[in-house]
Design brief:
The complex is a heterodimer of chains A (223) and B (475). Chain A is α/β, with parallel strands linked by helices and 223 residues long. Chain A is built from 7 helices and 12 strands. Chain B starts with 7 loop residues before the first helix and ends with a helix. Classes of the chains: A alpha/beta (223), B alpha/beta (475). Chains A and B meet through α1, α2, α6, α7 and β9 of A and α2, α3, α4, α8 and α10 of B.
């Protein structure tokens, strides 16, 4: 018995005038193994100060707030300051991320840190980004147990910690970090590229910040 | 979705006479056009990226069967259930079956043009399910009982005042005297109302902007974050994607993303791009317990073998409709089916047949702006021309039109006779029209002269003038 799958695939092959042959499979396998970079625009090849300045300017242009701290140990205090400055309760929820866990949360007086997936009443969620991308001002979050995806979308405020050294020039450079962490073809359950607080232009074409996702995106750059 | 395409002409006339629609259309496409141009100017490599994007999509489509199998293998290894639907009906049945097995009563939906194409909502609702659109624009249309008029800005045909009236009518439980003046207040209300739906839906359905063969992933690209809530909070996530959406690698995805948002809205990138691979994993505290992908053919495999193959490169940015003078004048609904604008004029006859969709490829001035802005360089006017030929060959236009076209073609293929005829026509019309320089009325040209005058020829044809110029005769 032929299945819908077989019929679709044989129609595709008939349309391409192709057989189910080894040479074509090799071509596809080679492209995947080599994952060539097609064309990098200049802005995706910057380094040093220019790379960081672009990252910062693009995110700020999208109404994200960037706070810089000298080292990872200063992150919890910076998170507390950001919440207070934003007029929010001093409470935030995080996952099991090892980098975040190594920071001195319990020493930060006045800050309540909750664990787990976001809940309906949560005002703020905290994630750790495995990379930042300069060319479009984008944070890369490998969501899963360590960084529950709901923390990035349910609360009105999302705070993201990213290390200065993991802010790279391009999507392709960020993918190298993903491959290093998850293996050649491996992926987290969701890889989230985030480039600002949520927005919509669906009412009269006017941009409104804060649609279904966060209204506020705070970024703590460490190091 | 109900097919209104055969009535394009009367629908277009009605759209032109609709003051509310004309008001909504007036400002918006212009803004998107300017924003795209600004984004292109900020990226010097934009044109080179278009060439690269076109080549990359061509390469992928030429190995489509292999990439689909690779995608399926890798998605399955990550825990996805991959289904195949040859027709819209089949895909609808597969999705309904998954919803039933999940014991679903409420289904949250992210934006998906494919779901419009296969009329998924109607199918699920007929089986007793409640379906809620969560993209703000789509939600507004759902409570109005309308369909999208644009593929990325579905409610572009509505004004803020219309939305306010709809919210007051639908959200009857909220206080009557509440303030809904600013767009932000309307957005806030929708966020509040829909959050409840996200939290109770048992199934979340999203489309897919792309599939990635390398990792077996599906990709959604959004600004609102509704797609992410849809797919993260429900027990079951169902992705509906057509077979042409597959890309080879994550690097290829990066190349395409560089073009998509810039072409669509002039953003450097959308706020969110989410690459999903499989269901929740051991130890995860959120995410769906089951992840299904329904791969839909619905005519694409055959399209791949036709002269319309290039249309499958489309990444659904909407630039062609934003730049189309016909779309700008009549809006998306007049096109009468799912895909409006130039891309719709090529896709629609392919998907519903030229007998029903043949009107659309004729609704073009062939000005060529759509092709000039298409990030995938799809030769849209050329493809529309193929449809006009197909329509003519199938004897679909009215007899008088076919006779006139046949006569014209006969003449145009005989250059000497043609030039002679044109000489007589130009000289004759030139002599008659010399006094006023233009015609207010002209036999056989009533459709033109009803709206504007026809300039009178100056007596000689272009060919004559050109020949004289080549010979050095002073003009």
């Amino acid at each position: 018995m032929t299945t819908a799958r077989d019929r679709i695939l044989s129609r595709v092959r008939a349309s391409l005038g192709a057989n189910d042959d080894a040479a074509r499979k090799d071509m596809a396998a080679r492209r995947i193994a080599e994952h060539p970079v097609t064309l990098l625009p200049e802005r995706a090849t910057r380094s040093g100060e220019a790379l960081y300045a672009q990252f910062r300017a693009l995110l700020e242009g999208q109404q994200a707030t960037i706070v810089e701290v000298a080292e990872a140990s200063a992150v919890p205090a910076a998170v507390l300051d950001y919440l207070v400055a934003s007029g929010l309760p001093a409470s935030i929820r995080i996952g099991e991320d090892a980098r975040l866990a190594s920071m001195p949360w319990t020493d930060t007086e006045g800050l309540t840190v909750l664990k787990g997936a976001a809940e309906a009443g949560d005002r703020a969620g905290l994630s750790h980004a495995i990379a930042g991308i300069s060319e479009t001002g984008t944070l890369v979050i490998a969501a899963g147990r360590d960084n529950p995806v709901t923390l990035a979308f349910m609360p009105e405020t999302h705070v993201v910690v990213v290390e200065r050294h993991s802010i790279v020039a391009s999507y392709e450079a960020a993918l190298a970090i993903v491959r290093e962490r998850f293996g050649a073809n491996g992926m987290p359950r969701t890889l989230n590229y985030i480039s600002g607080p949520s927005r919509t232009a669906d009412i009269g074409g006017k941009i409104v910040i804060g649609a279904h996702g966060p209204r506020r995106l705070g970024i703590i750059v460490a190091g | 979705m109900h097919i209104e395409t055969p009535h394009f002409k009367s629908n277009a006339r009605a759209a032109l006479a609709d003051p509310q629609l004309q008001r909504a259309l007036a400002g918006l496409p212009g803004g998107l056009v300017a924003q795209r141009a600004a984004a292109r100017d900020r990226l010097p490599e934009f044109e080179a990226l278009r060439d690269a994007g076109r080549d990359l999509r061509n390469d992928t489509l030429s190995l489509l069967d292999v990439y689909l199998e690779t995608y399926e293998k890798n998605a399955t290894a990550a825990g996805a259930h991959v289904h195949w639907g040859e027709t819209g009906r089949e895909a609808c049945d597969i999705i309904l079956d998954i919803c039933r097995k999940a014991g679903a009563r409420l289904v949250a939906k992210g934006k998906s043009m494919i779901s419009e194409e296969i009329a998924l909502n109607a199918h699920l609702e007929a089986a007793g399910l409640e379906v809620v659109e969560t993209d703000l624009g789509e939600y507004i249309l759902q409570i109005r009982g309308e369909t999208p008029s644009h593929i990325i800005a579905p409610a572009i045909h509505l004004t803020q005042e219309q939305v306010e009236a709809d919210f007051r009518r639908t959200h009857a439980a909220l206080p009557e005297g509440r303030r809904l003046v600013e767009p932000a207040e309307l957005v806030s209300e929708a966020r509040h109302v829909l959050r409840e739906k996200f939290l109770t839906a048992e199934v979340g359905i999203t489309g897919a902007n792309f599939l990635v063969a390398e990792t077996g992933s599906s990709v959604i690209v959004t600004n609102e974050g509704n797609g992410d809530l849809t797919q993260s909070l429900a027990k079951v996530h169902i992705v509906i994607a057509s077979i042409d959406k597959v890309l080879a690698t994550r690097e290829d995805l990066a190349s395409i993303l560089r073009l998509l948002a810039r072409s669509a809205t002039g953003q450097e990138c959308t706020t969110y791009a989410t690459v999903s691979t499989g269901p929740r994993r051991p130890g995860d505290v959120d995410g769906p317990e089951a992840y299904h992908v329904v791969l839909l053919d619905n005519g694409r495999a055959e399209l791949l073998g036709s002269r319309f193959r290039e249309v499958l490169r489309c990444i659904r940015c909407g630039a062609c409709m934003n730049h189309c003078p016909v779309y700008g004048a009549v809006g998306g609904h007049a096109y009468g089916w799912v895909y409006p604008g130039p891309i719709g004029s090529v896709m629609t006859p392919a998907l519903i047949g030229v007998a029903k969709g043949g009107n659309l490829p004729n609704a073009s001035t062939f000005c060529g702006r759509c092709e000039a802005v298409c990030p995938m360089k799809i030769p849209l006017p050329g493809l529309m021309r193929h449809w006009r030929e197909a329509e003519f060959e199938d004897k679909l236009p009215p007899l008088t039109q076919r006779l006139a076209l046949g006569a014209w073609a006969w003449l145009a293929r005989r250059p000497r006779l043609y030039h002679l005829a044109m000489r007589f026509a130009a000289a004759g019309l030139g002599a008659i029209g010399r006094r006023h320089g233009r015609f207010r009325r002209l036999p056989l040209a009533g459709s033109w002269t009803r709206h504007r005058d026809l300039a009178a020829p100056q007596g000689r044809t272009f060919q004559q003038l050109w020949t004289e110029r080549e010979r050095g005769v002073p003009q």
